[in-house]
Structures are given as C-alpha cells and as structure tokens.
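Final report, results section. Input specification for complex C-07:
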Amino acid sequence: MKRRLERWREAAVAAVVLAGATAGWTPGVSAQGTPGTEAFNIVGLRMSKVTLYRDCSMDKGVSLSREDLEKRKPWRATTDAKSAVYYWVKMDGGDYCVKAFAVETDRVVPVVKDEECRTRVAGHPPKTGAVRGVGESCN
Amino acid sequence: MSGPVAHDGTMADASIAVSEWPSPSTRALVQFVFLAALGALLFSFHGISLHLTPWSQAIVNAIVKYTYDATGQQKTLVVLFREENLATLKESFPISYARHAEVLEALAVYEPAAVFVDFAFIDQRAGQDVAPLREAICALQASGVAVYLAASPLPGKAGGDGLRDGLDRSCFTPVDVQMDTEIGASGVLTYRACQNIAASCEPAGLLWTPAFAMAAPQVGLARAEGQQMEIIWGNRVSTLNESWMDCTSDGTLMHLRQMLKENPLASKRKCPHTNTISVLHLLGRFDQKLKDQVVKGNTVFYGGSFEMAGDRVISPVFDDLPGVYLHAMAYDNLLTFRKDYKRAEQHGFSLSRVVNGLLLLFTIVLLLLVDKPPAFARRLLGRLGTVSPRVKWATLAVAVTCVALTAVTRTSVLAILLLVPLLLGVVAVLHLAATHPERRPSARQFLWSGFLGATILLGAILLFLGVDARYGIEAALLLVVLPGYFVYKALVARDVLFVATTVLLIGAAVVSFLPPINLGPRNIVAYVAFFELARTFMRRADAAARRYFTLRVEQPDPESWGVGAGILKTMDWIFALCIRGDDEEVIHEATARAVA
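Structure output:
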C-alpha cells in the first residue's frame, strides 16, 4: 500500500514537471521567446547523426541519432534571432543549438531576410603589402 | 630595265642609274620581308601582341554573351565562404577544420555529384583536431560524392600531394591548383590541364587540375588529350546570383566615359556567371528547391573570399573574383565544349602559331596588293576575271552550301567545311585588291562623305547610349560600335577592301575556333590595326620615295645633296625599294603599243 502511494506521488510529480516543461516551450512563453523568433517542431534528421552544441559552444558537442530523436518527438525548436544557421532546442534542462540544415521541421521555417542580401562577390579589394596573419603575436 | 615613275607621272631622268635599281619583283619581295619582320616583331614580342587587346577582348565578350551555351552553368555551383561570414559564424581566419567539416556535412545533405575543396590543408594546427574534417570528407565520399582537395604546390612536401598527415587519402583525389599568369589587360585566359604545361599529362603521377580531373570522366577525355586550355569566360546572366547579389552596373554614361578614357574593359561585370551561394545559405535552413534545381547531381566548387589572403583571379569579363571561379569556369568550358575545348597557345611550333602566321601572311599579301598592286599580281589575279560565269556560279554555290551545312549540321569538322568558302573569299578579295585600285573621290563625293561621316558618328553615339542602357556595354560594342565603324569605312572612307579584309579575318578567326582546330579567340583587332598602320606607313614611304626621285631629277648633282656619288647611289636603291606598284611597266606597255 505504501509502495503504491509512493508510486502515485512519483507519477504526480513527474506529470507536474513534464507539464511545466511543455508549458515552457509553447510559443509566446518560450524562454527563447525573443522578438523575431519562430517556434516549430523538429520531426527528423537529414543525417544519421547530428551534433547539438550546449549553449552553442562548438567545444560542447553532443551527438544525437535518429533513434534519440524518435524518443523526443515532437521536439520543439525555435529560430535564433541573430543567425539563420542554428535552431535552439531544449534537452535535459539545457539549451542546445542544432545546425539548421541538418534537421527536418514540421513546417517551412521562414527566413526574415537573407543575411547576404545585396552582396558584391566581384570587386577590387584594396591591395596591401602584407598577408593576413603575418606579424600577429610576434611578441 | 627602267626606273620608278615620279609622282607627276613622268619617269625619273635617265641620268639616274636606273639599270641598277631593284626590279619590281625584288621590291615586292623586300617589302614582303620587311612587313613580315614588322608583323612578327609586333605580334610575337610586345605592343599588339598582348594576346587579346581590350577592344578585341570586349568584342569576344560580346559574342560569348550571346553564343555561350548554358550547359556548364547549369551543372556548376560555387559555395563561397565570404569574409563577412567569419563574423556571422564566429569564425576566424583560417577557417577551423570543424567548420569545414560542417560545410561538407551540409553539402552531403544536398547530394552533389562532386565537390572540389579549394582550401589547401597543408600545416598542422595547434589545438585543432583534424579528425572531424577527415570523417566529413570520408562520409561525403561514402555517400557517393567524388571529393577533390587542393594539393600543395610547394615542392618537397611529403605524400606527393603536399597535404598534411591525418587525412585519409583513400577518401579524396588531390588536384593541382596552380594558376597561370595574367595576359595583358585581359587577365587570366589560360588554364593548365595538369601540373606540367610544357609536355604531356600522360604520366600517371602528374596531378590534374580540378576542372580537368572532374570533367574528364564526363566528357571522355583521356590523359594524353589533356592540353592547356584557353578559357572562354562565359557571361550569361545567373538568376540565382541576381536573387541575392548586387549586380548593378556602372551606368551608361560611366561606360562611355571609361571606354573613351581607358578601354572597354575598364567597366566589367559585377556578378559572376557561375551559380553561387554562400556558406550561410548552405548552413541555414534546408532548401529543397535549392537542392533540386542547383545542387543535386551537380559539381560544387567550395572556396573562399577573404581580405588580404590573395587568391583572386582577374578575368576579362568580371571585376576581380575569388580564385575558385577560375576552376569553375574551366570546368564549365569543358562541359560546354567537351573534347573541343579551346586550346591555348603553346610553346614552340603549334597549330596556334601556324594560324597566327597564316593570318599575318594574308594581311601582308593584301597590304602589298592594295592601293598600288604590282603588275605581275594584276596579271595573275586579273585572269580570274576571265573565268566563265558557270564556274563562278558553281563556286558560289559550293561556298553557300558549305556555310549552310555548318549552320545546320553538328559535325566535328566544321572548320574544314568553312575553310572552303574562306579560301574562296581570300581569292576574291585578292582579285578585288589587284584589279580595282583606289579611286580619287570627286568634289561632290568629298562633301557628301563629310556629311555622312558626321551623321554616322552622331547616330552611333545615340544608339550606343540606348543599347548600352538596355542590353549592356557588350551589346553596344557588338551591335553599334563595330557595325558603325564598318559603315563608316564602307560609305565614308569608301574603303571596301578594309571591310572585305576584316570580314575575312573574322571568318578565319571563326574557322580556327571551330572543331577540329579548336583554338581560342584570335586578336582580330590587332591584325586590322596592323593592316591600317602598315598601309599608312607604306603610303608615306611611297610618297617620300617619289618626292625623293622628283628632287633627284631636279638636282641630279651629288654635290647639291651634300654626299658622295656612292652614297647617293645607295640612297637611290633604298628609296627605290619604297616605291609601290610598277606603273613604269604599264607606261612601257603603252609606249610599245603606241610604237606598234
């Protein structure tokens, strides 16, 4: 009887925690709900394995497989207001970024504006008498 | 033997030792040798020899714009890592292995057929593990994509390709990325097939250049067939590039100003011909349309564009471009022309030199015939006028049939077909030059020509502005400036021979461009300029010689010339060489007829 009560109590706590976590990912109340971000679901990976970066730090990579994703679906994600290259996801209580090209989403994620707009590829760069990097940290 | 005629039509005085003067054939021979030497000097060493002068190149650009096929453009993509992308991606120069690996992973998602990485991984980098890059390269290759890596051109590096250790050589093909030097104002016009440009690419150990390595299997090009290429810089519009790049040109008035102040190449195109995306496009949201229409099954050239890092290529069409575009353009050429890609000039005796020599020879022969043709040439080529009309019509029919066949059929011997009408044209022009000497215009014609000249100039300027504004400077050059000059020469200067010569030179350039000759564009402007300059020079020399002999008749005494008799005799001989034509023979014939 006591064991059964403990199980009920654990289940209730887990339900409250999960509900809270889910509420935290609803659009508009997201922790990453900065203006200009969009929320959507990640529904698949375009590669067999994708690396997630904790706090978007390249030296804190965690590998995620298709099987891992299946366990987390539907997996809520948001766009990064500063870069179109990464999406943000929550995993095990931490904020991770994932490469945008590597995941499939449940809808087309809009791009506010192409960051490369009105770029000039051909041109006349200033001619210099030095090479990039030479002379740095000589002391 | 008689002496040359004086400018007033009378013969030089018999007191001048005419018997020791050069005969008409000797004069023609010496003039031929002189012009040949002058041409060789100008074309082989400097001046107009700078391969393609800006004007010639501008005309070539205009023709290429409307004739270059889209085959290569549709199958080629440049992925560019730009200077500004470093900050966006929180990267630094040189780009980390991890970032390169990320780009290659993204490319794998888009499923190209082949990828060339225009970054050379030569040195060990402290604090950076090469493993992610190695794995990304091998994963890309495992997914069915052929991977090519830029090899080091530095001698003495281990492994043959000069690349660092830690890379799995079984996952990629190293390629030679040495760039040929720029040619005059035109920029880089040639592209080597392999490391060795002097000899064959046949030895298996020689690295191919990226374009040849990637295109050879597709076009069935064997190692033995790998010869240095003359790049045709395509300048088709790329809608992909226009969707995100700033492609606005300098404007019509600026074009005109730059063309008059410098040359037509001073204002170049701002957007490359090769389809391009940046790494931000690639690493951002997956784009199914981009995959289906631009990347899937195509060849990707992944390169960089960074400040103070070198690796820029100067082309005759575009403002300076990142070096990766050179490889992409060469690959584009190979897909477009396949085995008939245009062969570059080669050292020593080559087909290219033979064609140049023939063009020069034709120009010189014409120079000797125009204005004052020698009597033997008049006799020889005048016989053509006696050919029966049937033969003439049959010849014309053959020429027209050959031209029609080249327009309709697709054969590997197009040049041979066109050679027939070209040679017939050469004979016709030589006949015209030898039998129709220049006529002096009447007073009425003189005034009319002046009015016509001014009208043509004004009309050409207005048309240039209109066409340039709507279709660009290349079209304005091709459709206005060139025809305008032709019309001027034909109607105002009444120099039909110039027009005929130019048309034949253009025809010869077309013939040498087509298979199986497959040479790059010829510098027609240089030949025409040579023709005009040498013609003016010969007229002046002829006039000076006639003036000299007039003075000699008036003042035959060596003392009045202030030199000895021997020197004056030599001077007579030298000036006699400058006399053109041989009117004296005509006079002799007339005298003989009169006596009879």
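The two ends of chain A are 74 Å apart (CA to CA). Strands of chain A lie at 39-45, 49-54, 61-65, 75-79, 86-91, 94-99, 103-105. This concludes the modelling results for the funded period.
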